[in-house]
Amino acid sequence: MNSRDVILGRVRRALADTGHDDTPYDQAVERSYLREHGERSVAETVELLAENLADYRALVHRCDADGLPGVIAGLLAEHGSASVVVPPGLDEAWLADTDVTRVADRAETTPHELDRVDSVVTACAVAIAETGTLVLDGGPDQGRRRITLVPDHHICVVRVPDQVVSSVPQGLARLAPERPLTWISGPSATSDIELDRVEGVHGPRTLEVILVGAV
Questions:
Q1: Residue ranges of the LUD domain (predicted)?
Q2: Is residue 13 part of a domain?
Q3: Strand 206-212 vs strand 182-184: parallel, antiparallel, or unpaired?
Q4: How far is residue 91 from each of residues 8, 35, 44, 122, 177, measured CA to CA in Å?
Q5: What is the 3-state secondary structure of the chain?
Q6: Opening angle at CA 23, ends 20 and 29, nearest 5
Q7: Pairing label, strands 197-199, 83-86
Q8: Does any domain span residue 28?
Q9: CB of 193 within 8 A of CB of 45?
Q10: Domain coverage including residue 141
Q11: 195: in domain
Q12: Is position 126 within any domain?
């Protein structure tokens, strides 16, 4: 008898007295979880998102749709960026006010090549106010996961209020589980046993979030 037989035998013995009329698994445990903590207006939800993003040391900016190209151009210039990775489905108008060299998101691009790129500009799939989290799902305007993990400077555009939800359960309801989901809460950071914070270890050192739209 091998280990597999031992394990399966234990499983069979554990299930021996389980009747076919037992409560189905998905109904066996009460799951009436809160989908939102408190009641907030749309404006309050957006304010909470901005507050929590800033608490995670993301840099938050606001503008309307017409002002977005100018804000992106200004942030790239302020960062001193000479190149920027661009997802294939990103709205071309977003980069209309900058002449920074654009690098396409290509499958054959190596991590070393991406590491030489100064910035990346993407949209997002959803933004969660209660946790200050941006979720990317690899959509056309977000590109491959690696383009938001290797460059040191990430500019992420959030459409307000359409892409903003209050809670994680509300966010999950908008996401497809088979997609490559990347959850971002602030710039990449870690700390050692003495709590010395180090940024940029496994992602961008600088995260800038632009909230676009009026509430």
A1: 47-212
A2: no
A3: unpaired
A4: 54, 33, 28, 9, 25
A5: CCHHHHHHHHHHHHCCCCCCCCCCHHHHCCCCCCCCCCCCCHHHHHHHHHHHHHHCCCEEEEECHHHHHHHHHHHHHHHCCCEEEECCCCCHHHHCCCCCEEEECCCCCCHHHHHCCCEEEECCCEEECCCCEEEECCCCCCCCHHHHCCCCEEEEEEECCCCEECCHHHHHHCCCCCCCCEEECCCCEEECCCCCEEECCCCCCEEEEEEECCC
A6: 150
A7: unpaired
A8: no
A9: no
A10: 43-212
A11: yes
A12: yes
CATH of the domain at 156: 3.40.50.10420
Sheet holding 182-184, edge to edge: 164-165, 126-128, 133-136, 182-184
Number of folded domains in the chain? 1
Mean pLDDT by 10 residues, the chain (215 residues): 92 79 74 81 96 96 97 98 97 97 94 95 98 97 95 97 96 95 85 67 88 84
Residue appearing with tokens 């050192």: 205
pTM confidence score: 0.83
Are the beta carbons of 157 and 172 closer than 8 angstroms?
A: no
Closest by alpha carbon to 103, among 79, 122, 86, 120? 86
